[in-house]
What we know:
The structure is a homodimer.
Chain A: H1 9-20, H2 26-37, H3 41-53, E1 57-61, E2 67-71, H4 75-91, H5 95-104, H6 110-125
Antiparallel strand pairs in A: 1-2
Helix pairs in contact in A: 1-2, 2-3
Chain A binds a DNA duplex through residues 6, 8-11, 25-27, 39-43, 45-47, 49-50, 66-67.
Amino acid sequence: MPSLPDISESEWNLMEALWESSPQTASELTKTLRPTMNWAENTVRTLLTRLIDKGAIKTGENSSGTRTYLPAVKREACVRAEGESFMQRIFGGAAKPLLVHFAQNSKLTAEEVRELKKILDQSLNS
Amino acid sequence: MPSLPDISESEWNLMEALWESSPQTASELTKTLRPTMNWAENTVRTLLTRLIDKGAIKTGENSSGTRTYLPAVKREACVRAEGESFMQRIFGGAAKPLLVHFAQNSKLTAEEVRELKKILDQSLNS
DNA sequence: TGCGAATCACTACATTTGTAGTTGCCGAAT
DNA sequence: ATTCGGCAACTACAAATGTAGTGATTCGCA
């Protein structure tokens, strides 16, 4: 178990951009994120450095010799870790209350409910 | 919308203790939390002060004139807020992917699955 | 009636996070 | 060669968080 790094909220946005498409250079990332985050490029660079320190991303180099960045951890694993941590913090680690909570607090379409029920079933016999 | 305060992880533990039983004095809380957190009483007091500043708790006084603390916000509301924020951060605000994720990553008993399905149904017609 | 324990109000201090700014270097276009 | 725009390395700095320590008050008890 590589024991995943702790990714902060701002950092998470960066990671999403990289999970979505990588490698990217710092300036590419800045442009990618501009619509949502509107960060200065230096902000992006700082976050990149921190993510490298944390071991969440690695670097490479593109054809023109510019440094590129790419994830060193899988999104799914990070999502699981975040989910675990959240479930622990708020629901004492119990999945059912969590599921009940979100089921009750969300408006779902009939179709979504159908899908979810199917998944619930699969979470049993498989 | 009272716009709930931002409660940190350590603070959340304190809140849980108060939601569980209140009012409590600082030293009572310290004892209550000792098994789980093992905090110095001053740590508890600092957190209490911060929670007051944030408007998450209020104070009273017990029969012997010692200050007591009690929640100023409802647990359910805070859970909803935390849940919203988590769902936003990790699942882009979409409930279905979140539910799918936790449904897939949890081992549930047949009974729990039954219950959840019922709740999913109710989340529709009501 | 001074003392030790409990209660408070302040202060402390390292980390983490959010969000940049500053400086130095390098290569391509005047 | 000068110059200017990227790129990279460092530095900055305030707010939030985790986790106490110190000093002043007070109140029951020896």
